[in-house]
């Protein structure tokens, strides 16, 4: 009995030690990024590296802001990602609802066609999309960044799977209560999907936030750059401005972190949705 | 209030190359204020019929009328009907108050105050006033059931449709709600169509009962009528618990000759004239165990119910059930003799199952004694 308890304790210790190591391994680069953002360039390349934050954050930021208007860049990224997330959520949930709850011709082939687009890498789509955008005169616009990705196959798939769990009787009941199909969608189906929507919001936001190659090709005016495009610009041909890159990346993760914290509770229950019978 | 008239209703489901006939040529009228129970085994088309009445399914053929109004092509929300679903279908993100008021909010021009007033009066009628601000998941099954009823009642529809509304409740609560539902229906006097697979529920609740099988209406009548005068073997077999005893017998002059030495002499041979084989039916309560019975069987199990015993017996390969006095305790393996009255005998055509003879003993209404004043 006592032997067993000691064994359990050892296992517990090892498990936590392992988890802690993984956490440290993951946090070190983040921590180093934040520290580096507060150091002047010459201290940054010192060895052994400094692990205590310095005081040069604002100076580094001022230098960055002087080189490029980084505040506008953050705003561009936030604007694009927020608009994209809202519109794509609406589109994906509507498409998911239709695929889950309505009968129409070619429903199955259509759904699989959408799923099939998952195997196409973004790199493959960049050139054709660029040609299309330049034909309709949309190059260097935000709408060219937002609209082509609105119908997100992962989003549609996720929403379809989750919408299927809504009992038909619930929708029929609303229909008998006199609700139109659109009312059924936003008054019954959407509220029932809150946690899935939160999870999808994070996925969509992250997708757009990280998008690099496509905006790089589409956007021309530096005033329209998004964060990934602007960051790439900091690696100059002559010199790499590590201090400024670190400030820029530190600032770049803040909106994402805020979004995750706000949606965390919903997100977790979204991931677990359907795993337990309520 | 409305009378429902269903003419030649047919519903066919097409799934690719095969089509399934769910309801076939159904003719049925439900009187104004009547409580009609649609009953049948699962897959018999009763729920489909209800869904057609509700407007949740398009009909393949036939017409539906509520009063003078042809509603065949109207949507559910335009038919002035309210439906209670088997799993209640309460909106999970809304409070009880919002659940009950949702239909009024969408389909009427009532003000918020008027809606609130109506919701509260219905809640009071159903005894759920203190639950109005709760969400459905905080309620027990019985309470959810009441909310579902409230949602139907509050709209003051001309027709109530109920799809097995009591089947998710435990036995005791089900019996309670059964009575309550009947009283409610009588108070509101709204035409009601109620679907169930439970024949006990059908018998207990319906003003009239409609029995369906394989998409075809078998019989409509009073609970007593369909019990005593079923039109065919299916109805006789489906209605009644425990089920009627059925066996095949040869007709030999005026004698029915069945399996394992079973024989019964008819005093009236008119029903079996022209038949060489018939199906014989005897209700469990009509079998009497008696020492001078003409037939005998072997007891297999006796189930004591308290107020009576169910005695299961073997007659050759057939199992017979008798409802007997609780004082009688035949032992398993015991040979018993039994008898029954010809008036209680059912006879069916061996091929078509159509009834040739049903119960003919007289029933006297009332309790038969004059109360002196």
From TrEMBL, chain A:
Its main location: membrane. Belongs to the binding-protein-dependent transport system permease family. It comes from Natronococcus pandeyae. GO terms for biological process: transmembrane transport. Keywords: Cell membrane, Membrane, Transmembrane, Transmembrane helix, Transport. The lineage of its organism: Archaea, Methanobacteriati, Methanobacteriota, Stenosarchaea group, Halobacteria. Residues 74-263 form the ABC transmembrane type-1 domain. GO terms for cellular component: plasma membrane. It is a multi-pass membrane protein. This is Carbohydrate ABC transporter permease. The chain crosses the membrane at residues 12-34, 74-98, 110-130, 142-159, 197-219, 239-263. InterPro entries: MetI-like, MetI-like_sf. It is found in: Cell membrane.
From TrEMBL, chain B:
InterPro entries: AAA+_ATPase, ABC_transporter-like_ATP-bd, ABC_transporter-like_CS, ABC_transpr_MalK-like, ABC_transpr_MalK/UgpC-like, Mo/tungstate-bd_C_term_dom, NA-bd_OB-fold, P-loop_NTPase. Keywords: ATP-binding, Cell membrane, Membrane, Nucleotide-binding, Translocase, Transport. Residues 4-239 form the ABC transporter domain. One of its GO terms (molecular function) is ATP binding. The keyword Membrane applies. GO terms for cellular component: ATP-binding cassette (ABC) transporter complex, substrate-binding subunit-containing. It is an enzyme of class 7 (translocase). It is a peripheral membrane protein. GO terms for biological process: carbohydrate transport. It catalyses: L-arabinose(out) + ATP + H2O = L-arabinose(in) + ADP + phosphate + H(+); D-xylose(out) + ATP + H2O = D-xylose(in) + ADP + phosphate + H(+). Its main location: membrane. It holds the Pfam family TOBE_2. Its EC number is 7.5.2.13. The keyword Ribonucleoprotein does not apply. It is found in: Cell membrane. The complex is composed of two ATP-binding proteins (XacJ and XacK), two transmembrane proteins (XacH and XacI) and a solute-binding protein (XacG). Part of the ABC transporter complex XacGHIJK involved in the uptake of xylose and arabinose. Responsible for energy coupling to the transport system. Belongs to the ABC transporter superfamily. Carbohydrate uptake transporter-1 (CUT1) (TC 3.A.1.1) family. This is ABC-type D-xylose/L-arabinose transporter.
């Amino acid at each position: 009995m006592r032997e067993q308890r000691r064994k359990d304790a050892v296992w517990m210790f090892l498990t936590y030690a392992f988890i802690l190591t993984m956490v440290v391994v993951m946090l070190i680069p983040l921590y180093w990024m934040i520290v580096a953002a507060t150091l002047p360039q010459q201290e940054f390349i010192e060895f052994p590296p400094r692990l205590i934050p310095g005081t040069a954050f604002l100076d580094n930021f001022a230098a960055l802001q002087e080189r490029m208007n980084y505040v506008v860049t953050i705003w561009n990224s936030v604007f694009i990602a927020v608009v994209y997330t809202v519109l794509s959520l609406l589109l994906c949930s509507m498409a998911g609802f239709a695929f889950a709850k309505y009968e129409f011709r070619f429903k199955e082939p259509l759904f699989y066609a959408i799923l099939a687009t998952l195997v196409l890498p973004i790199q493959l789509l960049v050139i054709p999309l660029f040609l299309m955008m330049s034909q309709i005169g949309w190059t260097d616009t935000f709408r060219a960044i937002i609209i082509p990705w609105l119908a997100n196959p992962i989003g549609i798939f996720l929403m379809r799977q989750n919408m299927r769990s809504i009992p038909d009787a619930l929708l029929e009941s609303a229909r008998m209560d006199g609700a139109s199909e659109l009312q059924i969608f936003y008054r019954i189906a959407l509220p029932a999907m809150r946690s899935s929507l939160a999870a999808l919001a994070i996925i969509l936001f992250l997708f757009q936030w990280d998008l690099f190659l496509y905006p790089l090709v589409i956007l021309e005016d530096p005033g329209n750059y998004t964060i990934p495009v602007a960051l790439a610009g900091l690696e100059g041909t002559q010199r790499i401005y590590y201090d400024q890159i670190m400030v820029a990346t530190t600032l770049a993760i803040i909106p994402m972190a805020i979004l995750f914290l706000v949606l965390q509770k919903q997100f977790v229950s979204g991931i677990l949705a359907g795993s337990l019978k309520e | 209030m409305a009378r429902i008239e269903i003419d030649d209703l047919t519903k066919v489901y097409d799934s690719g190359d095969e089509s399934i006939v769910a309801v076939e040529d159904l003719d049925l009228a439900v009187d104004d204020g009547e409580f009609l129970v649609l009953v049948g085994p699962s897959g018999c088309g009763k729920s489909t019929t209800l869904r057609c009445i509700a407007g949740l399914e398009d009909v393949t053929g036939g017409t539906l009328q509520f009063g003078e109004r042809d509603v065949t092509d109207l949507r559910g929300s335009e038919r002035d009907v309210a439906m209670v679903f088997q799993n209640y279908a309460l909106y999970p993100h809304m409070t009880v108050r919002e659940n009950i008021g949702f239909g009024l909010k969408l389909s009427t021009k009532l003000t918020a105050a008027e809606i609130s007033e109506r919701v509260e009066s219905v809640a009071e009628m159903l005894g759920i006033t203190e639950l109005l601000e709760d969400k459905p998941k905080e309620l027990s099954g019985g309470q959810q059931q009441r909310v579902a009823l409230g949602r139907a009642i509050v709209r003051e529809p001309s027709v109530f449709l109920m799809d097995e509304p009591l089947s998710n409740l435990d036995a005791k609560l089900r019996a309670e709600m059964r009575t309550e539902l009947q009283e409610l229906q009588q108070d509101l006097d709204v035409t009601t169509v109620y679907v169930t697979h439970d024949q006990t529920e059908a018998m207990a609740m319906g003003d009239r009962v409609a029995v369906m099988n394989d998409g075809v209406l078998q019989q409509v009548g009073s609970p007593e009528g369909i019990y005593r005068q079923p039109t065919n073997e299916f109805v006789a077999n489906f209605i009644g618990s425990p089920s009627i005893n059925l066996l095949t017998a040869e007709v030999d002059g005026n004698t029915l000759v069945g399996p394992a030495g079973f024989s019964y002499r008819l005093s009236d041979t008119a029903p079996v004239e022209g038949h060489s084989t018939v199906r014989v039916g005897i209700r469990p309560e009509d079998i009497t165990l008696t020492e001078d019975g003409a037939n005998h069987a072997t007891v297999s199990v006796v189930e004591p119910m308290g107020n009576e015993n169910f005695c299961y017996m073997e007659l050759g390969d057939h199992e017979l059930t008798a409802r007997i006095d609780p004082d009688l305790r035949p032992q398993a393996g015991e040979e018993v003799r039994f008898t029954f009255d010809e008036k209680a005998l059912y006879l069916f055509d061996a091929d078509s199952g159509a009834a040739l003879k049903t119960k003919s003993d007289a029933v006297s209404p009332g309790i038969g004694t004059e109360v002196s004043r």
